[in-house]
Amino acid sequence: MNDSNGGDDGNNASVARFYDQLAADYHLIYDDWDGSTERQGRALDTVIRSTLGPEPATVLDCACGIGTQAVGLALRGHRVTGTDISPAAAGRAGREAARRGLEMPVRAADMRALPFGEGSFDVVVCADNSLPHLLTDDDLLTALGEMRRVLRDGGLLLISTRPYDRIRRSRPVSTAPQLHGSGAGRTVTFQLWDWSEDGERYDLEHFQLIPADDDTGDDTGDDWRVEVRRTTYWALTERQLAALVTDAGFDGPAWRQPEDSGFFQPLLTARRHAAP
């Protein structure tokens, strides 16, 4: 999922580095990444077809990461293009698509400067809490303006974030450790969150404990490789993000909760309509 604050080149580089470092191990966040890819693609496909009609759509996933949503949508028959701020993540997304026999162009690009012409896509997806890497109104509006620009008239915007309305009420300082896999293949993932004084932004440390490679052939899993990656998010409430989407020129922003959409995060939808 993956972009950064355009007002700070250092933060921009750090977000790209976060996902470059995570790209090879990203699938280990899931018990079954292939299954999650299929489920997320199915949920987004349902929203797209129920909004735009039954035909396959041209889709840009502008924060494609290693391809979780992009591959899932391509498997449902959509014509998907992927971009990501992380060259390593974008490269892996391309390989994951090729491994499944999918034609899915992928490139490294910043969502604030999308390398496509106006009206190129029916749908723009920015999922998996990617947009909150942008830390200012100006950067968010720039990115949303680019998403609107590359959408055709009547095109559909899909954004998902963490449930920040609930999260900001409690301001958690960590996530519970998650154990995935079993035996020598098990991995542990957890996060530490350090909230800023404004109560809206937080620095995140992402920990993964992964069984270390052992040249001796011993696969008991007694040794661990510990990976720590750091990044920053803006915990935007649903009202804040909907207002920014409206300010960027979209119509009818509306939120769908996981129990309604089948997607694992709250999902904002909005449309690009032609100016009168």
Automatic annotation (TrEMBL):
Record field: transmembrane: none
Transferase in keyword set: yes
Any GO MF annotation of the entry: methyltransferase activity
Coiled coil: none
Domain of life the protein comes from: Bacteria
GO biological process: methylation
Domain Methyltransferase: 59-155
InterPro entries: Methyltransf_25, SAM-dependent_MTases_sf
Classification via Pfam families: Methyltransf_25
Entry keyword set: Methyltransferase, Transferase
PANTHER family reported in the protein's UniProt record: 2-METHOXY-6-POLYPRENYL-1,4-BENZOQUINOL METHYLASE, MITOCHONDRIAL (PTHR43591:SF24), METHYLTRANSFERASE (PTHR43591)
Protein name (database record): Methyltransferase domain-containing protein
Phylogenetic placement of the source organism: Bacteria, Bacillati, Actinomycetota, Actinomycetes, Kitasatosporales
